[in-house]
Amino acid sequence: MTNSKPKDSAMPASAPVKIKRALLSVSDKTGLVDFARGLSKYGVELLSTGGTSKALKDAGLTVKDVSEHTGFPEMMDGRVKTLHPKVHGGILSVRDNAEHKKAQEQHNIGDIDLVVVNLYPFTQTVEKGADYDTCIENIDIGGPAMVRSAAKNHAFVAIVTDPADYESVLEEMAENNGATNFNLRKKLAARAYAHTAAYDSAISGWFAGQDDEFPRQVAFAGTMKQSLRYGENPHQRAALYATTEQRPGVTSAQVLQGKELSYNNINDTDAAYELVAEFDAPAVAIIKHANPCGVALGENMLDAYEKALKCDPVSAFGGIIALNRKLDAEAANKIIEIFCEVIIAPDIDPAALEILAPKKNVRVLKAGGLPNITLARPTYKPVAGGLLVQDADNGIVTESQLKVVTKRAPSKQEIADMLFAFKVCKHVKSNAIVYARDGVTTGIGAGQMNRLDSSRIAAMRMAEYGLKPAAGAPMVVASDAFFPFPDGLLAAAEAGVTAVIQPGGSIKDADVIAAADEKGLAMVFTGMRHFKH
Fold first, then answer.
1. Is residue 201 one of the residues assigned to a domain?
2. What is the number of structural domains in the chain?
């Protein structure tokens, strides 16, 4: 480690640095041999370790093992191989510092001008379900140390952590007779620190998952997957980053057709796909501005889609359509009758894709699976000067958890519809009210400042689209939180509901229960709230 700084006058930022010796030690060997051959054309001496050395030698390249360079063998099952002054001194030496050069000459430490390192596959090891000890052994030590050393000394050393950068290094060497420029080295250094930060974040996240408590410090990182044209509005910059979490959904989905996804498309598609993942039966959700405007269960995708569309066909225009089964030709034929922005499903039938092909602006996403909505995982929300961190809302209410609080108990059909509506409620912005019957939403009130208005808006839409049931026909209402007063419940009663599901817990519960009994409603408490802000 050194505290010396390059002199401003000795090495201008524009001065190229010729690569004479390179150290290559990589887990991801994509493009490695071709890159090493490119370096050899300029007479670059290649140092390497273990499997990387073998791969290069097998390709006919001349390689010097790091153990030969340092005079020390790899030891302790490979835990110690590059942690040596002849490696780090060669990387960290400030080339125009007389004291540094003197130390190099005294200890026979040669310059290393290029470091090519990517790290042990820790994340992949965890994803494969490896045991604790195996995960620990896949925490790289020497690799991050070399990356950080080279990145710190980017005034003189180039650091490459991504095979995608091999080509740009070789191109610059071709333009500069085997040398690299400061601007490229600086850019590569920034990427290197991001690389090690993401790696450490994955490790710290894994360790945090071994404990039930929130960690004292939290770190998370992502790799840019897509630069977006703009954010929620044209004056906002935006990009999509993929985290280390392997979760089927919009980030990992394969885009089969359509133009580039926008920030709002991605946000809404995520909301839609997480919603349909709640259901075991065939389900379709139509989302607009992150709120569902129609959700339905059905015999198949066509049946579920047609039912979901009826809830609010006006809002569905230009919306996001999510399915929890393969999109087939029958459903695709119906979907193309209206304009939608995105369709996402676990799989897409080739016949359905052919039907959608003429609608070139419709983005069609194949997710490859459904997210596990019961998975324990943290969610993050930025606030001024910090982050709010919480567990994901993966709470599921079952029939056995329902507490009947009214004189009349709900029927089997009402119970099924209440559980359906309460799941939908979880994905509606608070204050949330959802009317439903026969596994179909008939009215949704979202994002209002009081629950009474949400009840009225949902009822208004239900009446507008002819979904209000005949008098006495079963219909339920779900509320994401308790009714603070009887008024919201009475508005639902006026809309024709016969059963109510809500968390309970208000100081006015007795008044609300009395109002439900007076109207002949069945009501159950869940004891679980689903605020969504």
1. yes
2. 3
